[in-house]
Fold this protein.
Amino acid sequence: MRILHVVGARPNFMKVAPLLRAMGRHPDIFQSFLVHTGQHYDPQLSDVFFEELGLPQPDINLGVGSGTHTQQTASVMLRFEETLNQLKPDAVVVVGDVNSTLACALVCAKERVPVAHVEAGLRSFDPGMPEEINRVLTDRISDLLLTPSPDADENLRREGYPPERIVCVGNVMIDTLARLLPQAEKRWEALRTRLGTRPYVFVTLHRPSNVDDPKNLSEIMDVLAEIAKRIAVVFPVHPRTRQSLRSAGIRPAPGVQLVEPLGYLDCVAAQRHSDFILTDSGGIQEESTYLGVPCLTLRPNTERPITITHGTNRLVPGAPRDLLHEANRLLDGDRPGPRCPPLWDGHAAERIVEVLQSFLTGRRKPSENLALQI
Ligand code: UD1
């Protein structure tokens, strides 16, 4: 069976790595191809992940680069259509919720190639978030909906998907975290020297809703300056955030240490050893839960509610206004206890491979049409 795996942006790489490894253990059954759309192309957002996660070089790089959402989605579609026709896979696996995920799933739907969506069913119910559109539409045109948690199953059932298309396989990103945590730990001493040897808050922010508006970003930076009076702030800066800081002429306050984006292993080590985390990333909400480190999410909603009900995450809906209050709460010792959601056990990829195999060999039938059963 020829399986084509799609990656495009930073959060995809750690989800596809365990799948390729798990399929690689069955060379008699699966032949995997890796397609990189090129949505992320900076070495710091892409190459370093291939190296650290042990990903093979992509068989094909579509090289789409940046653009508006429409340009990017359309470019991926045009170039991916050629790839699909060239490789003729039996199925395509897409992960997560980035523009590349939707673009490739849509091409498959049009070409009638079965699609498995890994991380299906997550919903923020926030239509203003580009990823929410990508999630809803990708699920709508996927044949297999592989979910990370029961809340995602519930969302899909509520939307009318037939139960045989939904399988809760657990969190595949945690497979990578569980495997590479020892290697990340080995890098801690060197990283600690680079960052300075004091307690710190680890910050990542890149959502358009937080960083695109200069006034909002400036207010967030002011709160970080207040937090830095109590504890150091370490903030690896995403290219989108860097552009906004630059164009708004915002300078960091003393105690707020801006650094280059970190590779995977350093990012895990920096989270693990932080006092707490402040983020708007989806993946970091999950990683901090697994690591048992308190996390404040600067968003009014999350598509990953299990990190709140079963993990260490707290939303800051009124950010930046309520951020200082929530940070002080943590610094004063009001901290969520570490807990880990079920099926975040390092074996999600093995379950996905099993499901995919039975799906493709006909035991689990792809739906003949995509009509919703309500
Ligand atoms: C994308 C995903 C988001 C994910 C994030 C992780 C979508 C809609 N968004 O957002 O879900 O959380 O990746 O990082 O798919 N840029 C570079 N170098 C790169 C890539 C981008 O400098 O390698 C700059 C470009 O100026 C670009 C901007 O960053 O315009 C934003 O990149 P883009 O891929 O459009 O969205 P992200 O904000 O990275």
